[in-house]
């Protein structure tokens, strides 16, 4: 029996690129590397326009005490500009633009880890992971070193999240198949770091090849098990993954470590291994390029900072005009303003979606009270009532019906026959609740 | 939902040359196909077998009444929305569902103005004046039916199944021999003369669409299969009626009495198609079960002690009013909440 959770939805999988091996994208002529690669403090640029850089040279760093890790050059060449621009979320980000010389020279600082991992403690491993600039590569982009330090000694179970429950995305699937040794090596390093005696590699049952491969590789390993998960969205959500595997429910606001677990993404594990093996920092990642507009959906290993348009071009261009470009999956990903938006450390996929795929946005959003959203919500909230409260401007009501516990998985909006943009209403509610809380705090301080 | 955005770059020939604007609306970026309209079509499909049976046993007039009712409902919906300057949404077929349900709740002998008045009350007064689909507080078709009881003699002209009424005149004519429904004899404390299998198949007198238990059940199973409804309301409603009538039979063998009670009157139609009306029933599972039990208790109480022959309509209408409270009562425990409490204690 495959492991699973309650609620959630079945979505069309569209795993168009699951059979395409990872291809190495040649260095693009120019990369734009964002300094906002992770949750926490954005990196501060530490190069100047005109500087020569090589692959792996630190171009942005954060102070030691702050949450964050360095950002490295992903191609060799010349820093052309340092610029700021507005991104989709409405915040300004700083970019380092590097013109590639196509030589792919490595920076001198890129060296294999000297000692043996067996002698390394959490502190030491976290140090290497931090200077390699490794962040969670699945979605939230939490700096991995910080996760290691917070989980060290507290996590009895390490979970490798290979659910990949979002439609279209196949990058982790390919990483498991083609870099299984690196993934396992990373898992072992991370187990050593956090001191957890067991690890589960959790794979959805729609990836039988990956399950077979990992089972073979781990045949004689008594500490790491492959766990087969039922294909259901959002199986890859941390809370649902932990529940499916351990039966423990983690309330909103709690961290996996509160349930004795620590979760890493498969690509993150492979990156950790590479940081130790040859010292390569996180400068390339595997990105699924897919969507109904792309001629040949592929999985590409690309330098961080490569513009989306270059990836589409490598995949044979478009068969249809894209109306939306999404970084991440179709359920939770972020729509981009710009076709040249650059790949970041957490960009697992770039989707080019047409108007036909997206469907006409409904002119009327009318809740018919069918109850699907309530039945599907994996957090067991009352989505319809939250949306209704927001429409009536009743923010207290939205809070009572669970707005702050929403993980924004999108199950509710996906299945709503009345085409209500429930998640959007919930985001509004969250923002208002937060700003009201901030206001009452500051007015309390004034007194 | 297009917003301002940059143009797609056209750096080479392979890329789009059109200067399209990119959409940046928020996630999710894909949606299931099911819509209000597809759901309403499913409900219509589920109702049709029982309605067609009604036409077969009660005659062509049943078809005419259905047509008048459906067309009036759709027309009133369109006209009201036009007058109130709301978007006209006849094409979501929700008014057609109301019209069909209303017709199925009427005896075949009613004068033709009855469904028109009923449609007006259902659509204009109960649905649109309360804000339209999803916002009405009570079930439009049922409210209209109860309103139409003001013309009690017109509303109780039931005929035997097989006594087909084919008159298409405004008034069905005097040649109709009214016949007591099985429910009437059950309420007076005697098992009806019809056999249980007649009741199950629908060889009995009653409203156009309520007589065939088996076809209504088939429609219900279709809706369950299509995930249009969940089991909670029909099962708890019919189950409650079954348990009470089995424990406190008014006549004959308690098991027989129970079967008669659940196949009689509008229980099947009401529990499967009316009580499950989205707008007027709870959307939490627990709320739905309490609601179904409440419907069952009130139905039997009215059948046992009330003056009206049929309790289903009133029971559902009363429980409709409690929907909001039941949803708050039945609000599920949030993910992780139970565990958290255990840890703390
Ligand atoms: S899924 Fe949509 S229509 Fe159904 S109850 Fe939720 S918000 Fe209303
Ligand atoms: S309310 Fe939030 S957690 Fe629940 S289904 Fe919707 S997006 Fe997911």
Topology of this structure?
The complex is a heterodimer of chains A (447) and B (345).
Chain A: E1 22-24, E2 30-34, E3 44-45, E4 52-53, E5 58-61, E6 71-72, E7 77-86, E8 92-100, H1 122-131, H2 144-151, E9 157-162, H3 171-178, H4 180-194, E10 198-204, H5 208-217, E11 224-229, H6 238-246, E12 261-265, H7 266-277, E13 284-290, E14 298-303, H8 308-314, E15 324-327, E16 334-335, E17 349-353, H9 355-358, H10 372-376, H11 383-391, H12 395-400, H13 411-415, H14 422-446
Parallel strand pairs in A: 1-14, 9-10, 9-12, 10-11, 13-17
Antiparallel strand pairs in A: 2-8, 3-5, 4-7, 5-6, 7-8, 13-14, 15-16, 15-17
Helix pairs in contact in A: 1-2, 1-4, 3-5, 4-7, 11-14
Chain B: H1 36-58, H2 60-83, H3 94-104, H4 113-127, H5 140-148, H6 152-155, H7 182-187, H8 196-201, H9 213-225, H10 232-247, H11 254-263, H12 267-274, H13 285-305, H14 312-320, H15 323-329, H16 337-344
Helix pairs in contact in B: 1-2, 1-3, 1-9, 2-3, 2-4, 3-4, 3-5, 4-5, 5-14, 9-12, 10-11, 10-12, 10-13, 13-14, 13-15
The complex binds iron/sulfur cluster (SF4) (2 copies).
Structural notes for this entry:
The complex is a heterodimer of chains A (about 450) and B (about 350). In chain A, strands 1-14-13-17-15-16 form a 6-stranded mixed β-sheet. In chain A, strands 2-8-7-4 form a 4-stranded antiparallel β-sheet, with no helix packed on it. Chain A has a 4-stranded parallel β-sheet with strand order 11-10-9-12, sandwiched between helices. Helices cover about 30% and strands about 20% of the residues of chain A. Chain A is globular, with a radius of gyration of 22 Å. The N and C termini of chain A lie far apart (about 60 Å). In chain A, a hairpin with a 6-residue loop joins strand 15 (about 325) and strand 16 (about 335). Among the domains of chain A are: about 120-275, NADH-ubiquinone oxidoreductase 51kDa subunit (Rossmann fold, 3-Layer(aba) Sandwich); about 370-445. Chain A has helices at about 120-130, 145-150, 170-180, 180-195, 210-215, 240-245, 265-275, 310-315, 355-360, 370-375, 385-390, 395-400, 410-415, 420-445; strands at about 20-25, 30-35, 45, 50-55, 60, 70, 75-85, 90-100, 155-160, 200-205, 225-230, 260-265, 285-290, 300-305, 325, 335, 350-355. Chain A is built from 14 helices and 17 strands. Chain B is mainly alpha-helical and about 350 residues long. Chain B is built from 16 helices and no strands. Chain B is globular. The N and C termini of chain B lie far apart (about 50 Å). In chain B, about 50% of the residues are buried. The chains are: A alpha/beta (about 450), B mainly alpha (about 350). Chains A and B meet through helix 8, strand 15, strand 16, helix 13 and helix 14 of A and helix 1 and helix 16 of B. The site of one iron/sulfur cluster has 15 residues of chain A, from helix 10 and helix 11.
């Amino acid at each position: 029996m495959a492991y699973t959770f309650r609620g959630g939805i079945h979505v069309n999988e569209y795993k168009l690129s699951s059979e395409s091996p990872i291809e190495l994208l040649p260095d693009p002529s120019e990369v734009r590397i964002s300094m906002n690669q992770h949750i926490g403090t954005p990196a501060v640029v530490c190069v100047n326009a005109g500087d020569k850089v090589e692959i792996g040279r630190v171009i942005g760093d954060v102070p030691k005490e702050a949450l964050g890790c360095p950002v490295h050059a992903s191609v060799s060449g010349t820093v052309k500009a340092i610029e700021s621009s507005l991104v989709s979320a409405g915040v300004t980000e700083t970019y380092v633009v590097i013109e590639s010389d196509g030589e792919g020279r490595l920076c001198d600082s890129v060296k294999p880890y000297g000692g043996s991992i067996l002698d390394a403690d959490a502190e030491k491993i976290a140090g290497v992971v931090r200077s390699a600039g490794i962040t969670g590569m699945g979605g939230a982009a939490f700096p991995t070193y910080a996760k290691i330090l917070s989980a060290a000694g507290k996590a009895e179970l390490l979970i490798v999240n290979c659910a990949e429950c979002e439609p279209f995305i196949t990058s982790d699937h390919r990483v498991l198949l083609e870099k299984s040794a690196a993934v396992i090596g990373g898992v072992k390093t991370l187990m050593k770091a956090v001191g957890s005696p067991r690890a589960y590699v959790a794979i959805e049952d729609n990836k039988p090849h990956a399950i077979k491969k990992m089972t073979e590789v781990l045949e004689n390993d008594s500490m790491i098990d492959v766990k087969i998960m039922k294909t259901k969205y959002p199986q890859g959500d941390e809370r649902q993954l932990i529940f499916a595997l351990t039966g423990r429910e983690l309330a909103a606001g709690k961290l996996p470590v509160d349930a004795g677990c620590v979760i890493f993404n498969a690509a993150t594990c492979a990156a950790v291994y590479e940081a130790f093996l040859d010292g390569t920092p996180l400068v390339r990642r595997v990105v699924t390029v897919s969507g109904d507009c792309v001629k040949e959906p592929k999985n590409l290993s690309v330098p961080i900072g490569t513009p989306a348009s270059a990836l589409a071009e490598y995949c044979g261009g478009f068969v249809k005009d894209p109306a939306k470009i999404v970084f991440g999956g179709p359920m939770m990903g972020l729509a981009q303003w710009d076709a040249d938006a650059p790949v970041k450390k957490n960009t697992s996929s770039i989707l080019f979606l047409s108007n036909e795929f997206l469907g006409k946005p409904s002119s009327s959003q009318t809740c018919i009270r069918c109850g699907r959203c309530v039945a599907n919500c994996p957090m067991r909230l009352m989505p319809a009532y939250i949306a209704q409260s927001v429409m009536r401007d009743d923010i207290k009501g939205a809070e009572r019906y669970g707005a702050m516990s929403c993980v924004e998985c999108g199950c509710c909006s996906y299945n709503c026959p009345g085409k209500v943009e429930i998640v959007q209403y919930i985001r509004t509610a969250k923002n208002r609740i937060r700003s009201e809380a901030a206001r009452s705090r500051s007015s309390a301080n004034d007194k | 939902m297009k917003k301002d955005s940059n143009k797609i770059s056209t750096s080479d020939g392979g890329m789009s040359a059109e200067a399209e604007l990119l959409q940046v609306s928020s996630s999710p970026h894909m949606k299931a196909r099911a819509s209000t309209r597809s759901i309403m079509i499913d409900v219509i499909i589920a109702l049709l077998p029982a309605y067609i049976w009604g036409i077969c046993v009660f005659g062509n007039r049943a078809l005419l009444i259905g047509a008048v009712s459906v067309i009036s409902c759709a027309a009133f919906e369109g006209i009201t929305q036009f007058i109130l300057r709301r978007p006209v949404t006849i094409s979501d077929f929700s008014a057609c569902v109301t019209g069909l349900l209303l017709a199925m709740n009427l005896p075949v002998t009613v004068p033709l103005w009855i469904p028109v008045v009923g449609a007006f009350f259902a659509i204009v007064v109960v649905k649109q004046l309360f804000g339209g689909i999803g916002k009405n507080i009570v079930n439009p078709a049922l409210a209209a039916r109860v309103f139409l009881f003001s013309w009690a003699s017109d509303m109780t002209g039931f005929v035997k199944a097989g006594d087909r009424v084919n008159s298409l005149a405004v008034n069905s004519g005097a040649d109709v021999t009214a016949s007591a429904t099985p429910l009437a004899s059950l309420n007076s404390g005697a098992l009806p003369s019809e056999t249980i299998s007649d009741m199950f198949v629908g060889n009995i007198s009653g409203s156009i669409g309520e007589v065939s238990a088996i076809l209504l059940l088939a429609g219900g199973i279709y809706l369950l299969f299509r995930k249009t409804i969940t089991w909670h309301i029909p099962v708890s409603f019919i189950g409650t009626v079954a348990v009470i009538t089995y424990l406190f039979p008014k006549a004959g063998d308690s098991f027989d009495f129970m079967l008669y009670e659940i196949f009689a009157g509008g229980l099947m139609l009401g529990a499967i198609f009316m009580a499950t009306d989205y707008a007027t029933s709870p959307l939490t599972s627990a709320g739905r079960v309490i609601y179904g039990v409440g419907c069952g208790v009130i139905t039997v109480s009215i059948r046992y002690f009330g003056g009206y022959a049929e309790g289903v309509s009133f029971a559902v209408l009363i429980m409709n009013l409690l929907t909001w409270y039941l949803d708050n009562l039945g609000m599920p425990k949030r993910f992780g909440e139970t565990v958290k409490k255990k840890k703390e204690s």
